[in-house]
Amino acid sequence: MRQDQEDPYQRRSAQVYAAADRAAGSVASPRPVLYDAVLLDRDGTLIEDVPYNGDPEKVRPVPGARAALDRLRAAGLRLAVVTNQSGLARGYFTGEQMRAVHARVEELLGRFDAWLVCPHDDADGCDCRKPAPGLVYAAARELGTTPSRCVLVGDIGRDVGAAMAAGAAGVLVPTPVTRQEEVAAAGWVATDLPAAVAEILRRQQAVQPSTPPTEPVRTALVVRSDSAGDVLVTGPAIRAVAAGAERVVLLCGPRGRAAANLLPGVDEIIEHPLPWIDPAPGPVDPEAMRSLSARLGAVGADQAVVFTSFHQSALPLALLLRMAGINRIAAISDDYPGSLLDIRHRVPVGVPEPERALSLAAAAGHRLPDGDEPVLRLRRDAVPPRPADVGDPGYVVLHPGSAASSRACPPEVATRIVGALADAGHRVLVTGGPDERAVTARVAAAGGTDLGGRTDLAGLAAIVADASAVVVGNTGPAHLAAAAGVPVVSLFAPTVPFGQWGPYRVPTVRLGDAAAPCRDTRAASCPVPGHPCLSGVDPGDVVDALRTLAVSGGGGR
Ligand SMILES: [Zn+2]
Question: Which residues does residue 152 pair with via DSSP β-bridges, in sequence order?
Answer without folding.
Answer: 39, 170
